[in-house]
Structures are given as C-alpha cells and as structure tokens.
C-alpha cells in the first residue's frame, strides 16, 4: 500500500508541475532602440537648458560653490580658453574662483544657442556676449562657447568647456 501511495503522490506531483508550467506567462522583454543621432531628446534638452541657466545665475549671484557644482571634475575634464593650451579640473576651478572674486556683477547674452543631446551627453554651443563688471568697469567679452555636458548619476554636469574670442569686425561685415 505504501508503494501505491508513493506512486500516486508522484503522479499528482508531476501533474501539478506540468499544469503550473503550462500556466506560466511568457514575459518578453522588448528593448527600445535609441537613435542618438536622430532622436531629439526634448526632455533632456530642457534639463540641460535649466542647468545652463542656473550656472549663469550662480555667476550673477557670485555663488562659487554652486558654480563649481555644475562641473564634473575628473581626469577627463578639459578646457580650452582664448587660444591657450588645454587645461584640466584644477585650472578650471582656479579660473572660476578668480572670476567670482574679481567681478561685482555679470550680465550676459547667449546668441545662437544650440543644445544637441546624444542621450546622456549634450553639446551646447553659443555666441556669448559676456559683460562682467570688474571694479568700476564693464568689460564686454564676445566669445564663442562650447560646453559638453554628461548626465552622471541623474545630474547634468560639464565635462568640457571651450571659449574662443569672436571677431566682431568680421561679424559686422557679413
């Protein structure tokens, strides 16, 4: 009788397992393809624009800690400024601190602003009219700017800056 009971239990167990297997749902994971070249990423573009606006507001407010927080300082951080050699994180931080210490106010206009997003990387280009007040003097600086942002841990940070003087005489003649 024990053998019959064991056999019956095994048969019931097999039927239960097979029945459960048949009821399992097939879960299919569909991977969404991201076209980093042709997709516009409008939400991310707005995020980058908001960071850019906050960055320049931190300069106007002379808030060095906030200004520095927009940078992703590492060995991969690079900067070009005014035709000089490439610099890195420490030189950029020193420059930003000097800027904040030397100005009493800062006005600006970003002409021809373009924000191109490649998923978690954004390239921001513009023609800048920077007008810092240093001492009593308002200095007008026309610069072409490029900033590369990387979304790191959910936050957009600058990993590259490039500022070059604009030839305004050429601009007027066109």
TrEMBL record:
InterPro entries: NTF2-like_dom_sf, SnoaL-like. SUPFAM superfamilies: NTF2-like (SSF54427). Pfam families: SnoaL_3. Residues 48-166 form the SnoaL-like domain. This is SnoaL-like domain-containing protein.
